[in-house]
Amino acid sequence: MTHPVRRDRASRQPGSRIPGWSGDPLAEFDDLFGRIGSLLESTVGGAVPEARGWAPLADVSETDDAYLIEADLPGVKQDDVDIELSERELVITGELKERERTGVLRRTTRRTGRFEYRTLLPGEIDAEGVSAALKEGVLTVSVPKAERTKPRHIPITSAD
Length: 160
Hints:
Blueprint: H1 25-44, E1 58-62, E2 66-72, E3 81-86, E4 89-96, E5 113-120, E6 131-135, E7 138-144
Antiparallel strand pairs: 1-2, 2-7, 3-4, 4-5, 6-7
């Protein structure tokens, strides 16, 4: 398959702008992303449902005693976060509210609105001992393991 080729390159003067490009290349990318989003919305049926929102970045780690979930929630207030545990599934939901601004907002890349993070923990847990803390924009949830799933050290005795 052949592709069309622009033949006006030789006629362009050094330092002249490419026809169709604005002075701000980032504006061109914004326009391109907008067009791609519109195309996806028209073909796939829309973006992420509003009720679910966006998912914060998070790490899930395991120690001998517990599972630790650390979710990045910068700017989120403690009262705007809800944590639920159902069997082995941990769900963190909430809302990052838009702050009031003065002046004209020219560009924004920060996420706002509803968020949801879900994870399925790999082993049995002690739901009564779950604790959570929000410090410096990081939510840390500690989910203790059930006693029977904790590893235990087996000493080796001599056979003499």
